Task: inverse folding
């Protein structure tokens, strides 16, 4: 084999790729971080919350210069019907001071910051360059081809962090058959409002922020919705299951418009100016759709490895991407030291994933995505729950109060939920979240 150009090529300068490149560069290895966009983060959209505590290991005191918009100190879960809303609201001042919990951030800023950290440690960032395929010798991956003239890059190890539906992982045969039911599409509007208006509407101050996760409000399409506060914008959007979206007539932007007109959401967003609309495919099925992570000369991390925890209560992704990138980098360092970049030599990667929250959390919650996106949870339970609560607080004098058991029984039957359905879903819920 000709001499490699570098020790490792990392494809994709998102959170996973930047973390992998940082680990490798700090260990003294030559590493190229490829990014198809003009800068790291230019191709990414994100409407959610970053949970950066994994960075305590990689970038201690990361909060001192991380491009955070707001620290999430208020976490709300909302159930919507067409004209009702039930919200469970939690606040914690502890989440507004180090070491913090979650934060809102613009992905272009976040990814650019992480990639700059990798560069400062010695990684070479090459932008506006797409990895178009894999180089192989004797069945082992030995680099990538790119869309630049004479742009082949040879390396001992390739780490694929090229996002959802990874072309490199597919070319390597590491993915099975793709099932559209395993994916959702996230659609988001960024809506500008003055900071003082956001503070007043969401009951926050300074850098405090709120994360609202919503069941319902998606125009009858299975999925979920969200509202997140940035400093002077809101992220408002929906996550929609692809087969359900394709089976009906509404476009995603129409579904967001319907969400914004809901009586519980309209007062939060009114008079705002839409600055951006974006969409992104999300791997939603968790453990059941993950590819083979390790091959001869190749590792797969981040969204390319379907590391997104979409479990209703827990909605996380960037933390898994950063962690998997770190562990891929560490495994590559071990393999290079041993002079063995085969799948066996890179096996430390999957060991790290198994022994940490990355796969432990996915295993624990492996049933949750199917339950949360099921038709009953999506279409029957919101109305049943909202109507039960409405009747609990409604005063129907001169009629006496019917009692909670009767109310719940009435609303369960009205929603078309059998006791058997309820018991089965309750058991699945215990198995999923217990």
Result:
């Amino acid at each position: 084999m000709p001499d490699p150009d570098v020790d490792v090529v990392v494809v994709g300068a998102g959170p996973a790729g930047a973390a992998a490149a940082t680990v490798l560069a700090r260990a003294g290895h030559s590493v190229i971080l490829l990014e198809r966009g003009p800068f790291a983060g230019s191709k990414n959209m994100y409407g959610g919350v970053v949970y950066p505590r994994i960075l305590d290991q990689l970038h201690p005191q990361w909060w001192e210069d991380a491009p955070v918009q707001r620290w999430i100190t208020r976490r709300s879960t909302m159930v919507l019907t067409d004209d009702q809303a039930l919200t469970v609201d939690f606040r914690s001042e502890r989440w507004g001071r180090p070491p913090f919990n979650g934060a809102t951030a613009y992905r272009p800023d976040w990814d650019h910051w992480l990639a700059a950290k990798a560069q400062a440690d010695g990684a070479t960032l090459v932008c506006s360059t797409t990895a178009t395929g894999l180089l192989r010798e004797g069945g082992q991956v030995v680099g990538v081809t790119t869309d630049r003239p004479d742009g082949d890059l040879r390396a001992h190890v390739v780490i694929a962090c090229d996002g959802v539906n990874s072309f490199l992982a597919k070319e390597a045969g590491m993915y099975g058959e793709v099932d559209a039911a395993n994916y959702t599409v996230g659609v988001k509007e960024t809506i500008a409002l003055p900071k003082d208006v956001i503070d007043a509407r969401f009951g926050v101050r300074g850098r405090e922020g709120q994360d609202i996760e919503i069941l319902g409000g998606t125009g009858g399409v299975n999925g979920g919705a969200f509202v997140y506060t940035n400093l002077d914008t809101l992220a408002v959007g929906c996550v929609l299951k692809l087969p359900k979206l394709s089976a009906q007539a509404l476009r995603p932007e129409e579904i967001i418009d319907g969400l914004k007109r809901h009586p519980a959401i309209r007062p939060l967003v009114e008079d705002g100016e839409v600055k951006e609309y974006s969409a992104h495919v999300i791997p939603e099925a968790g453990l059941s759709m993950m590819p083979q992570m390790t091959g001869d000369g190749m590792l797969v991390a981040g969204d390319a490895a379907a590391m997104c925890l979409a479990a209703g209560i827990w909605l996380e992704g960037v933390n898994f991407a950063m962690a998997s990138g770190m562990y891929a980098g560490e495994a590559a360092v071990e393999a290079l030291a041993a002079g063995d970049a085969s799948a066996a030599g890179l096996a430390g990667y999957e060991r790290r994933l198994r022994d940490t929250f990355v796969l432990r959390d996915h295993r624990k919650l492996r049933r949750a995505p199917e339950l949360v996106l099921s038709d009953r949870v999506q279409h029957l339970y919101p109305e049943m729950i909202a109507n039960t609560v409405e009747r609990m607080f409604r005063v129907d004098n001169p009629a006496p109060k019917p009692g909670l058991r009767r109310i719940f029984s009435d609303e369960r039957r009205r929603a078309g939920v059998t006791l058997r359905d309820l018991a089965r879903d309750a058991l699945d819920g215990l198995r999923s979240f217990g």
